[in-house]
Amino acid sequence: MRRTGIAALFAPLLLVLGLSARAADAPVVGDMAPEFRLQDQNGKWHTLADHRGKWVVLYFYPKDQTPGCTKEACSFRDNIFAFDKLGAVVLGVSVDDVDSHEEFAKKHSLPFPLLADSGGEVARRYDVLGNYGIIKLARRETFLVGPDGRIARHYSKVDAEKHSAEVLADLKALGAEKARS
Fold this sequence. Notes:
Elements: H1 2-17, E1 37-39, E2 45-47, E3 55-60, H2 67-78, H3 80-85, E4 88-94, H4 98-108, E5 114-116, H5 121-125, E6 129-132, E7 135-138, E8 141-145, E9 151-155, H6 163-173, H7 176-180
Parallel strand pairs: 3-4, 4-5
Antiparallel strand pairs: 1-2, 3-8, 6-7, 8-9
């Protein structure tokens, strides 16, 4: 009981620092990206296989309507045409539910799917589920998945405002423009 109380007390600090235990079997660059089947803010189902042949920006974020998550989502929104030009699909994932995603997407005019991982299973498979006592949230991390379904980049340290531009630069460096032509 005492241990749970201590974990709950330090949960906000751990969340800010992005600290938690990491699984030994977390996917790494070169691995096949773990498959999933999740609903978006409109109730449409998505799988990773649906996007095979395209670059996929799979970004995990903690919570709808929070300052950092809003900045990150709006940055992806503002660059969506550049991602489209490179043949890349942007998918946001959090443990929020479909209704929360619907409200968040409408409020900020987000033109890409926000996937509801309410049980945290996909975040767990990608080893980004932070367990902060009674609170479970996805950590702010991104996986860039290549057209072959393999993880091409993993971003474990993400600046919410600058991350979209960082991913775009990496897509160009990886030859996404050439693959699209």
